[in-house]
Amino acid sequence: MPGPETLVVLSQWISPGNTYYNARYCEPVWPLAPLIDGPAINLVKMHWRNCPVPLLDQVKPAAWTMINGRLRPTYLQKRGARARARTSASDMRGTCNEWMRLARWLHERRITTLGDCTEEVWRAYISERWQGGVTRGHAEKVCTQLTDLWAFDQLNAHPTGIARPPWDTEGFDDFLPAGAGSAGGENSTEPLDPQVLGPLLVWAIRFVDDFSDDILAAWAERQRLITVATATRASPEGLAGLAEFLLPRVRSGEGLPSVRMHRRRRLARTYISALTGSSTHQVDHFAKQHQLCDLANERPGPCPLQVQVTGLIDGKPWREYMDFDEAADLMRHLGTAAAVICLYLTGMRPQEVQGMRSGCCPDPKPADDDGTPGRYLIRSWHYKNVADDDGNHISAGEERNVPWVAITPVVNAIRVLERMVPTGELLLSATHHDIPFQRGHHGALKNGALNKRIEDLVAWANHEAQSHGLPDQVIPEDPQGKIGMSRFRRSLAWHIARRPGGLVALAIQYGHMRTVLDARVSSGYGSRSRTGIHSVLDIETALAAADTAAKLRDQVAAGEKVSGPAARRALTAAATTPRFEGRIVPKTFAKKAAKFLARDGVVLFDNPDAMLICAFKRDTALCEPDQEANAPRQYDCRPGCGNAVRTDTYARLLRERADEIDQLAATSAGPLGRRLKANADRLRETADTHDNTAQTAKAIA
Q1: Considering the entire predicted model, what is its pTM?
Q2: How many Cα neighbours within 13 Å face the side chain of 116?
Q3: pLDDT score of 523 more than 80
């Protein structure tokens, strides 16, 4: 049993190099930072003020045992393969908070010892615990945490005698709240709407590719001016330069160089000091003497930097000049934009993006003898379900045996982030992205901070879209709520499966991403086991294929005709494919999805850009899919393919598209107009072929 001066975390559980403060058992707050090595993990604490005093000395020993002990293997066996003898610090904090919640409930009912928490008390507590409304998935987690209180109490030298919760012997089902279960996690997270993701990606890539040089140069110049101002001492020459710089502006009514501070515009003392050779103290005294503080708020002016502007928006310079006051905000948005690209176009989990370091994506080796160019590979760390041989959670994670593949926008984003942090540092280092202060925060930017920065980037982009006359590039609100880091990975799979040909920005990359992610026997990312992004991609693809089958079934039932060499196969598939309702995905769905997609020849893929349905069969596909591909290369759909199916709806859309192209051809002179007209004629010929060959489902059968 621990004594008052016993360390909260025993030395064997602290990694070498972890220097966070380790509290004593008697202290009212227990920091769990000595257990935390992951860069994206918040430094959590246990606050014992939340535990009633009569029960404090009974809950504390169980918490200390949880921090320093291990659950018995026999206890873990019934929890499945992913159960851990020791969990993460954040899980420990959450478990202890649940214990303290129970203690407060017991205290309110004048129960002062855990030994009086009998089976009947457990049943009463758990029936009241769900009154605030919780999902069944969360309720199951709470039951497990409460069972752990009994398990760790059993490991103490002086157990309290708390009863074993009845759900641990009878099963969870009868103790959970009513309602449909939810697996939680990324499979139940709604993907981002295409109307949101398209312009967001446009602005993110624009930041990285077009604005980054200007922003980084402006930031360097801003830092130089700050250094100059800090080092400048008061002198008569500086005072004369100050008067020469400011007084003509005051007399002419011109705006004074200003910066935002505490919701007001204030005189840009550092900027003015560096430009005039005066000290910041002289600037303050001069401003007070001439009453410039209020004047700067009434007549705010810019602080242009001597930096050349090279970035363009719609062919025009995006800024007349780079501003001293705006440089910090732009640096913040630049880091966020690069993070958005990495989150979305790699398939990495948020923690994995937050764990990337400078140098993680080196330039590839020269092309092989056969001319195949090398791929950019991201060699970094992963964290989910990482444990040692004894089943203990490893907070620091471990380097992945197989790297991620990086496409060009991701490489560009990483290169920009590498210019923002020192060599070897985390690319999203909380210290170096804490602009302008750089206050030495722990690890990488955390989820909450990045979520807020994404919302700020959206607000900035929308303001710029309006000011530059680009209303089609405004980022609307997502129907499912805030954007958030956790939605990007699911969105990648969703758009690969459902929008492969150009409906959102960089859509052509989705086709390449499917090739990269689905090449399961090739080098790089594709050779990893079929968990991770493969399972997410399989789930989205299976849901999309099921929706396509249901849509075709409904169209045929409404009287539409079908044409194409694969019409019979498509109708058979539509008749036998189950309709999926909702989007709550059980944990076993990934295996079912992979099995569903493996049915070569009877899985349907909608391709609205080619205006047809693909009844995908590898041997007859003209898009040349990989040997083990479970979906077509929809971005490379070719005429005459034996997998094509077309409905009356798509024939009508072909004619509508032809009419739109004709209107464009009428305003285009010369060869371009003729090519557009020929394209429209081909679309009408395709629609005519459908009309001449289409049959009803009954006739085809």
Answers
A1: 0.75
A2: 11
A3: no
